[in-house]
Amino acid sequence: MRAQSRGVLPGFGLSLGITCTYLSLIVLLPLATIFTRTTELSWSEFWSTITNPRVLASYRVTFGASFVAAVVNTFFGLLVAWVLVRYRFPGRRLVDAMVDLPFALPTAVAGIALTTLYASNGWVGQYLEPLGLKVAYTSLGITVALIFIGLPFVVRTVQPVLDDLEVEVEEAAASLGARRWQTFTRVVFPTVGPALLTGFALAFARAIGEYGSVVFISGNMPMKTEIVPLLIITKLEQYDYAGATAVAVVMLVASFVLLLTINLLQWAARRRTAA
Amino acid sequence: MSIEVRNLRKAFGNFVALDNVSLDVPGGELVALLGPSGSGKTTLLRIIAGLEPADQGTILFQGENATDRPVRERQVGFVFQHYALFRHMSVFENVAFGLRVRPRKVRPSEREIHETVMGLLHLVQLDVLAGRRPSELSGGQRQRVALARALAVKPKVLLLDEPFGALDAKVRKELRRWLRRLHEEVHVTSVFVTHDQEEALEVSDRVVIMNEGRIEQSGTPEEVYERPSTPFVYGFLGDVNLFHGRIHQGHVNIGESELDAPEWAHASDQAGVAYVRTYDVELGLIRSGTSSLEAVVRHVRAFGPMVRLELDLVDGGRTIEAHVPRGRFDALRLGKGERVYVSPTSVRVFAQPA
Amino acid sequence: MTSIAIPRPAASAPRAITRATGESRAVRWTLTAIALVFLSLTLVLPLVLVFAQALSKGFSTYWQAISEPDALSAAKLTLLVAAIAVPINLVFGVAAAWCITKFDFPGKNVLITLIDLPFAVSPVISGMIFVLVFGAHGWFGPWLLEHDIKIIFAVPGIVLATTFITSPFVARELIPLMQEQGADEEEAAIVLGAGGWQTFFRVTLPNIKWGLLYGLILCNARAMGEFGAVSVVSGHIRGETNTLPLHVEILYNEYAFAASFAVASVLTLLALVTLALKTLVEWHQRRSAVESTETDSIPERIVA
What we know:
The complex is a heterotrimer.
Chain A: H1 12-38, H2 43-50, H3 53-86, H4 92-98, H5 101-104, H6 107-118, H7 125-128, H8 139-164, H9 167-175, H10 180-209, H11 212-218, H12 228-237, H13 241-272
Chain B: E1 3-12, E2 15-25, E3 30-34, H1 41-49, E4 56-61, E5 64-65, E6 76-79, H2 91-100, H3 110-123, H4 139-152, E7 157-161, H5 169-186, E8 189-194, H6 197-203, E9 206-211, E10 214-219, H7 221-226, H8 231-236, E11 240-248, E12 251-254, E13 257-260, E14 270-277, E15 281-284, E16 293-301, E17 306-313, E18 319-325, H9 326-332, E19 339-344, E20 347-351
Parallel strand pairs in B: 3-8, 3-9, 6-7, 7-8
Antiparallel strand pairs in B: 1-2, 1-4, 4-5, 9-10, 11-12, 11-14, 12-13, 14-20, 15-19, 16-17, 16-19, 17-18
Helix pairs in contact in B: 2-3, 2-4, 3-4
Chain C: H1 25-54, H2 59-67, H3 69-102, H4 108-120, H5 123-134, H6 141-146, H7 155-166, H8 168-181, H9 184-191, H10 196-225, H11 228-234, H12 244-253, H13 257-292
Helix pairs in contact in C: 1-13, 2-13, 3-7, 3-8, 3-10, 3-12, 5-7, 5-11, 7-10, 7-11, 8-10, 9-10, 10-13, 12-13
């Protein structure tokens, strides 16, 4: 859209003022405390805090489960998006609306529901335990919860791209002799790829910070199923503010790196397919 | 490879796109399917390609029934109006696609693929752009890539769906000539769909004019233009004026004037429509016989070799269009508001449909 | 603009992939079945379980759980927090969208990234930062203690944390929308003599109403359902600083499962209403988008 000179439309000063004031007070200032607090620690103290075995274990648990959950979501998210976009079946619109449930449902509700579902006497857990699959109170449970949380991110990112796919391109491939799966792997998938990657990154980013849906099912055993957000809370309750912020800084750095990656992916995708 | 279409019928819900259409395309011919939007030409093309199933009827390729064959087994090359190039692949890869997806047993070697592709790119004069992405090419270049891609698998039939529809007028003219030359070199049976009559008449060996799901006329460009068999064809090709009147024993009476219509010698007071091409008129400053129509000049557009005149008929008040050669116009020195007499030199009379 | 986004809705009619070039029927059915089974397991089962567990001890237990004083005060607090946080973010969102989309100035992209920031921060960290600022050992800790003002472990803290968490929703919805609409109509209004506020209410607002509503619905849902951040700042004081999600947690940790799920079911109903409203607004958005881009209604396939 055209660049506006400040002269014509009113309200620039007011709107910018409100925006900046709000951002500074509500967003920037509070966020700044993380860094000021962390600087209270010397480098060695900072380093030893974040490399403490318990902390490292929590990173492993959080990032590990988030990664696996994001991978599962990428796979099933693509499938769900494909079925929703390409196929017709009774209740399709309802199913489409339901995909946003993890986004609308309070995380605590999801947390207790999933825990009860996968506990040893739960609706699903009771069938899995005899098979040796203990879900509740293990990192598998954490992963399941994170799959729930991250699903909409992949589906909603991929859906628009699938929707925009020109039918003619697939027809062209067919006329050139390609079998259906060849058309999918050579033509459709590469086009959807960037969006899929973005969806993965979004699901991953959301998962690493997730607390409510995970804290019930994880069991919170230090070194085994303790997630980073819980560790931060524990440190806060012990008034170890500097320690808490140190751990948080690592999380923030990871989140920002992901944010950056997502931005780059979207920018690259825009360039590649600019018509 | 020849194409035979027999009694094809296709409906989309209540809309009948093709109504009992039959067509023969001899091998090696370049045929144009011409008609307005909704005439069924694209539907027909897509059914031939196998991109759309017919409700009824058969398609025969070289005498063999291909009606139920899936599109990938028909060996047709299809060129889309909006190119449908694979955006994430280079030009080279696009053209090579058809060769790469062949089953392992029949797949050519990498070297053979390279040769074939570069040969085709050379044919379409795009060899220097082999490494580029489609987004870096102009519309005309993209369509040439699409053509090369379709030809790479040595199709028996080439089908083009409004191939130049998305291009600028100038590029369209160039590519038109170019398609004709390509056809003369490669000699693949080709069918292309267009709504541009100039394109159809200029490029093809044969024109098939379609309207509302049916074939109106099929013949060489000269045939359909000079000897249109239905009012629709007459009106669709070239600019035409219509005159409503009454046919009676070899004449048609239009207002006070009377035109010859020898083919209706036995008609007796029938309603009719006289079709006169805009350039099949003679203009004069004085009345010349009973076939002259009096008119007043309303608008003159004098550019190019022909001058276009809008004339208001005195009798009835209708406006007709006349195209006269520059020289003739200059001789008459007609201006706005002046009186002139219009004599049709070639008339085709059809009975008024009931 | 980008990133950790509000999952964008896409629900549109399936493309007419012709039988000639689509997957075989068997493949379609299999894929659909797998997708539906996956979704049932992941989404539907937990949903059903909430209600089943809530009513497992009978309706009277259910009713008791959601009508006892602590539950009611939790509900009141939840509503209060939303009633404060949502309007604040509405004003912020509109202001931010206005200055970003109708004007050009250096640093616009930085601003957009800052607006996105709360999305990138884990809820727990979002709560933690306010503890760091207003907590007993925080920046203003001593000062607040002196003046006997409680922010952390009290309602103001909850409001602040919730406001932070939900700040991007309205802005993120409005910015792309208003960017697409441009500033032409507003300029026209100004030229015709309208004042700033008049222009906003008569020209801008009608154009953005569905996007605004959408953002508000999401903002509200998150404000009422937030758990992690509120958990950190609230102190879990029953009857005083518990929101509904926190109350659910407390009941659950006390093994009062039926009661916990009863309260959870209220939140779940809220979530379902949110989804329904969301779908409704999306439908309206699509309708107004179609109306404003009058295209030929004859599908390409039929135009021969």
